[in-house]
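Inputs:
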Amino acid sequence: MASKMLAYVLSTFLFLLQLHFSAGQSVVKAAYWTPRNEFPVSSIDSTLFTHLFCAFADLNPSTYQVTISSSNSAQFSTFTQTVQQKNPSVKTLLSIGGGGESKASTFASMATQPSTRKSFIDSSIKLARANNFHGLDLDWEYPSTKEEMTNFGSLLNEWRAAVAAESKSSGKAPLLLSAAVFYSSDYYSLIYPIQAISNTLDWLNVMAYDLYTPFAKNSPTKTGPPAALYNPTSKVSGNAGVRAWIQSGVAAKKLVLGLPFYGHGWRLVNANNHGIFAPANGAASDELGYGGIKDFITQNSATTVYNSTIVTDYCYAGTTWIGYDDTQSISTKVTYAKGKGLLGYFAWHVGADKNFALSQTASRAWGA
Ligand SMILES: *[C@@H]1O[C@H](CO)[C@@H](O)[C@H](O)[C@H]1NC(C)=O
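Outputs:
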């Protein structure tokens, strides 16, 4: 009798434990951190987040192993411990890759063969465990042929299987797996491997920004809303992207909406013609962090505008025009994400905020 009782209690316990691991996240309020702008990890107000991404680990182009550069190793290896001082329940993910064509081509060649995929997968798991991360994030920008999309799917399937096997043998909770993806499931008429994504990833970081930039291949001759939520003139918008992902078959609960804590600057052709889609003459500056934009506004007494149709902010002074997200755009987007049943939001990147104004706005807009 007693042993039957014990068996029952034990099986209930194991069931609940399993439920705990498979239930997934209830919300993702996240941001990336990068050493790029020298914003110290210890300064992050981690109480505003459920998850923090440490960016980036690198992919070795000859061995296809994931590595942390020696200049980053001190900050990366203590990242989790440091951010958990203010918020013991915050989870951390090591993000691999990032933008740039040479990284994209290294990802593409790694993903072609089972053996090179295995190098990537095994080394990534080892690196995450050795540096105390709770998960891994793949930032391949972007798989850009049909074969690369297929190989991306194979990589995800094998990665999830390896993560599950490692969890079984180590007895630890499985590593979280996420990927940062294009704003739409349709990447210039190539469709992401939806089935593999749905089966393997805990969530997708939807990069709903850089939709309009002053760069040559994008919109150098017209200003634009860099991270439009809606777009009266085309399908280039965060909302259109989210809808495309859902229509392709990815559950809303797997989508995390990207928020830019930075903007893009254009040079106006005519200082008196300063609307959205006004004639422009290329970039006025490099990509600008939110803090830098706020300083620019103060120093130049720039005019600021919130456009609620598109959900973007912009400012202008003389012939400089900057499109960005201020608190109104951020809170409208977070309310949108929650209303659509998405899993949450993430920001690129926390160090570009100004005194956590945007991070706080986002956290409050989502609510507890
Ligand atoms: C926002 O900008 C678009 C494009 O210029 C314009 O059509 C729309 O009227 C603006 N919305 C508001 C509320 O000003």
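Remarks. Residues 232, 275-277, 307-310 surround 2-acetamido-2-deoxy-beta-D-glucopyranose (CB under 6 Å). The longest strand covers residues 51-59.
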